[in-house]
Design brief:
Shape: elongated
Number of helices: 11
Helix content: 55-70%
Radius of gyration: 21 Å
Strand content: under 5%
Distance between the termini: 71 Å
Structural class: mainly alpha
Order of helices and strands: HHHHHHHHHHH
Length: 192
């Protein structure tokens, strides 16, 4: 006796199978970079999979190993509420595996970013952007959607990019007012 499944159920099974093969393993090692890469991979997979929060949380739990798996066992034993929802699990994951960086530390890190002699301006901008976005993993998703937050992130990217450019490039764009132009315009000037 075989039961036929609805197209929606088939789609969920198909998306679940795709997502489980795309998810990387996270073992708790590698610091912020590994944790951020893992969350980014999960978020990218979720966007295309259209699965429930419960299904995503289950799949993510199965992709943990090493000390991350031990951490999960501890949470399970403590009867953490709503651990079966992705949004709750993601918050707990961030709290455990991502180091919060103070505003002063962020500023110091941004000041220390320097374009290397061989690094193209595009690659340096990418590095600045990635570094700055690594700061915001503890920021609530609702806050990230606010225009004021987005504008603040753009200002940080501009600051880090201009401040860290090689001297000969920085001298060539010194006439640009960063408040008046976009990052794209600054990059265009830096490429010249």
């Amino acid at each position: 006796n075989t039961s036929s499944s609805s197209p929606a159920e088939s789609s969920v099974r198909e998306n679940t199978a795709k997502l489980s093969t795309k998810l990387p393993e996270f073992n708790g090692e590698g610091g912020n970079t590994a944790a951020i890469d893992f969350l980014d991979a999960v978020d990218n997979c979720i966007l295309s999979a259209n699965l429930s929060e419960e299904r995503v949380a289950s799949l993510v739990k199965n992709s943990l190993s090493g000390s991350a798996k031990q951490w999960l066992r501890g949470l399970t034993l403590s009867m953490e509420p709503n651990l079966d929802k992705w949004s709750t699990f993601k918050t707990l994951f961030k709290d455990r595996w991502l180091t919060k960086i103070s505003g002063v530390q962020q500023f110091q890190l941004l000041q220390s970013l320097q374009q290397t002699a061989e690094e193209p301006s595009d690659a340096f901008l990418d590095r600045c952007t990635t570094t700055i976005h690594s700061f915001d993993y503890h920021v609530a998703d609702q806050t990230k959607k606010m225009n004021s937050y987005k504008e603040e992130m753009k200002k940080k990217i501009k600051f880090a990019f201009i401040n860290g450019l090689r001297p000969e490039i920085k001298d060539a764009i010194v006439t640009i007012d960063p408040e008046e132009v976009s990052v794209k315009e600054i990059l265009k000037q830096a490429r010249r």
